[in-house]
Design a protein that fits this description.
Chain lengths: 399, 397
């Protein structure tokens, strides 16, 4: 049983080809795998107005899809009891001990109260450490200006511009928290801190940690924090969509760009590059609840834990990228979990995440499905017609 | 991987981590049980005391609060025979607790009371809502009710069987005091199970230990479970340690020839029992098998389902003062949320503060038991935290 209609899978290709034809994006690689039957579609080229054809092994900056990968690595240490979910991070990250918390998130940096408790590993995994991305309205929040100045703010990934891990932690440690630990979901920073925590735990750089814990077992041969010179021709340029004009602008050249050499900061929040085959291996391991051919990355209870919504109703009401963001979804460890059936592609229990530079991944246990979209056109994935059409097309092909 | 569905490599990881903690002096030794699909892996590591004899599979442990679910099961045996009813007032059997008065304010004077809105029931005792027990509220000064409990040796504290008065005297002293809250209002730890033990004994017309032996321990083959350890088995009783703040060292809390070496005046239904790995595995497996042991139905499936279903009203777990409490059945906790590697919704069990823990997990068809005598207070025990993670990460199907 294939489980995906070949006729209807053509619509995935057609939907993406329309965006190539009208110049929205140069090209894309799409994967849908159901009951182990895998379809890979390549459309268009690597560059707007030129480039070479997209290939199945084209390398993409997967940005925030790094987050679930780092969370998996962290859980391997939890299973060994080298980390505990509710232990304070302070012994490994003394820069974050004795936090102070802003009285008002809009207020001055010296108007603070002591944190009610230390930050824990659970806070980092569930994005509740009290610090993360915030929109800048009302304009000019002092905490955001300070975060940007110290290189610990959010925004599109700029690996080459990041401070090194110690400087990153020092910078973060100079700032108060935005909210109390555990209080609400705040995007991004928890993952970057998690990466440093893992590095310090084993006293090795994060690329080596992920290599040993995730990439080697799963055969993810092209997933890394940078692209070596002999593969750089497989990395397309990245485009950022201008908010005003809607036009894509070049964000990163491939050769000589920010992913062309090992970065000073191995960002667990957004640093990785990967391929369709590599991320399919990751998504399939998650579908098989930790198993891969030849062994196990994590136990089933750990995968179930990571893919169970961990946010409270109250936290959901306060958190998210926009009002109502968590009406039909929640957050596990480093990834989103759907809780409602509000679109054609939404299945309760489906989990995964996006990359802000134009990528997306979901694993759907109920449908036995893994789907991945890889582009390098940056926009808010959940609001992007390209992404929406991809997910609709994949799910209407379920047969 | 055998028929247990557990990875032998990952069980070895469990042994290595826990043996490492013994090597580091975190505790002298322990016994672990991971039983899945009826196949038990039992591991005895280290010694029965620092510098003592080797830990054995049949080493005897003070299981303290793991007494609570055992006494709850005993009460359900009487409910099934209609000798007790869940919603009957306890007053006829426990007249000392009839006509309760309730403090107007929990930290107010003892004579500032209102009448209880209703009598205490068996259900209140089983679900820990009789209106008196461990007080977790943060209060500026010690409330008079706590001082009065301490004065009468009916306060909440670590198990000290030798320090408690007998059943009748215990109840007489407790009856002198008002309740902290209205019956049914709050989940409060500890005291309800002490009262329940007396209720079961009076209802059965036997000492609690005799009733437990006749109806539970005998049928289940729990040969070493009792309120004290006879002289000819005392060499199998491990030494009990707890943290000595602020130094963080362990100090001896109870030696084998200590408080459990002689039958206590008060057979405490809240924390009095000693047991072994195989004994408690029999209890945990009986519940997992919905009351069945061998050919015998010790409890009906309906009773077990009731005991292991969350009985708390909305908000009562949150107000319990126990941050990890999700749900509570009869004498034991019920897991409602998947918030740890070892957390499965529907799993039930409880811990013993002197260093033990047990969960039965219907969804995983698994019983996990940790037996140590390194208390989880006043310092948290890394072994207690890690054992359940290690057991669950060994699941390989």
């Amino acid at each position: 049983m294939a489980g995906l209609s070949t006729t209807r899978m053509r619509r995935v290709r057609d939907a993406l080809a329309r965006y190539v034809d009208n110049g929205t994006l140069p090209g894309a690689v799409a994967v849908a795998s159901r009951h182990g039957d895998t379809h890979v579609e390549t459309v268009g080229t690597t560059e707007l107005g030129g480039g070479t054809p997209m290939r199945e092994d084209t390398i993409f900056r997967i940005a925030s899809m790094t987050k679930p990968v780092a969370a998996v690595a962290a859980m391997t240490f939890v299973e060994e009891c080298r980390l505990r979910l509710d232990d304070p991070v302070d012994p490994l990250l003394p820069e974050l001990a004795d936090r102070r918390v802003l009285v008002s998130v809009d207020g001055p940096l010296d108007d603070t109260v002591p944190a009610a408790r230390p930050i824990t590993l659970r806070d980092l995994l569930t994005f509740r450490p009290g610090f993360g991305m915030l929109d800048d309205t009302p304009v000019g929040r002092p905490i955001l200006a300070a975060a940007r100045r110290l290189g610990v703010g959010g925004g599109p990934p700029h690996p080459a511009a990041m401070p090194d891990p110690d400087a990153f932690l020092r910078g973060l440690g100079e700032l108060p928290l935005m909210y109390q630990p555990g209080e609400r979901w705040l995007y991004h920073t928890g993952s970057d801190v998690l990466g440093v925590l893992l590095e310090r735990l084993v006293d090795r750089p994060l690329d080596e940690v992920l290599q040993e814990r995730v990439f080697d077992p799963l055969g993810m041969v092209d997933t890394a924090f940078s692209v070596p010179a002999d593969r750089i021709h497989r990395l397309p340029p990245a485009y950022l969509v201008d908010h005003e004009t809607g036009e894509p602008e070049l964000l990163d050249h491939a050769e000589g760009g920010e992913w062309a050499s090992p970065p000073p900061f191995r960002s667990a929040g957004g640093g990785l590059v990967s391929t369709a085959a590599d991320f399919l291996a990751f998504g399939t391991m998650m579908l098989r609840q930790g198993r891969y051919e030849g062994g196990r990355v994590l136990s089933r209870p750990s995968v179930r834990l990571m893919t169970t919504d961990q946010l409270t109703r109250e936290q959901k009401a306060l958190s998210g990228f926009f009002p109502g963001y968590f009406d039909h979804q929640g957050w596990g460890f480093g990834m989103c979990v759907l809780t409602g059936r509000n679109t054609l592609a939404a299945t309760p229990g489906r989990f995964g995440w996006y990359g802000g530079l134009g990528t997306a991944w979901a694993t759907d246990p109920a449908e036995d499905l893994v789907a991945i979209l890889l582009t390098q056109r940056s926009e808010f994935p959940e609001l992007s017609p390209v992404h929406q059409d991809f997910w609709t097309s994949v799910y209407q092909a379920v047969d | 991987m055998g028929s247990s569905g557990l990875s032998s490599a990952r069980l070895r990881r469990m042994h290595d981590v826990l043996a490492g903690q013994v090597d580091q002096g975190v505790l002298p030794g322990l016994v672990t049980v991971v039983s899945r699909h009826g196949e038990a892996a039992v591991d005895a590591i280290g010694a029965q005391a620092f510098g003592g004899t080797p830990m054995r599979r049949d080493t005897i442990f003070r299981i303290s609060s793991m007494t609570k679910p055992v006494v709850a099961a005993a009460a359900m045996i009487l409910v099934e025979e209609c000798r007790l009813r869940l919603d009957d007032p306890v007053d006829p059997l426990l007249p000392e607790l009839a006509d309760r008065r309730v403090l107007v304010s929990v930290d107010g004077p003892l004579d500032d009371t209102v009448p209880a809105a209703r009598p205490i029931t068996l259900r209140d005792l089983l679900t820990f809502r009789p209106g008196i027990g461990l007080l977790m509220d943060e209060l500026p000064d010690e409330p008079p009710i706590l001082a009065a409990m301490t004065e009468r040796s009916v306060a909440v504290g670590p198990p000290q069987p030798a320090a408690k008065p007998g059943d009748d005297e215990f109840l007489r002293r407790l009856g002198e005091l008002p309740l902290m809250f209205q019956p049914g209002e709050r989940w409060q730890y500890h005291t309800s199970a002490e009262v329940l033990g007396v209720l079961v004994a009076r209802a059965a017309g036997q000492p609690l230990e005799t009733f437990l032996r006749d109806r539970l321990f005998g049928p289940l083959g729990m040969v070493d479970t009792a309120f004290s350890v006879p002289a000819d088995r005392i060499d199998r009783l491990a030494a009990s340690y707890l943290g000595d703040l602020p130094a963080g060292d362990l100090m001896l809390w109870d030696a084998p020839d200590g408080q459990w070496a002689t039958p206590p005046a008060f057979q405490s239904g809240t924390d009095g029992l000693v047991s072994t790995a195989d004994d408690f595995l029999a209890f945990g497996t009986m519940l997992l098998r919905h009351g069945r042991h061998g050919g015998e139905q010790v409890l009906s499936r309906r009773s077990v389902e009731l005991m292991t279903a969350d009985q708390l009203a909305p908000g009562q777990a949150e107000r319990s003062g126990f941050p990890d409490l999700q749900g509570w059945g009869f004498g034991m906790s019920v897991t409602l949320h998947r918030d740890a590697v070892s957390a499965t919704p529907g799993q039930y069990g409880w811990a013993g503060g002197l260093g033990t823990g047990w969960y039965s997990d219907p969804a995983e068809d698994m019983v996990t038991i940790l037996l140590t005598q390194r208390a989880v207070f006043p310092l948290p025990s890394p072994t207690y935290q890690d054992f359940f993670t290690l057991a669950y990460q060994a699941i390989d199907d």
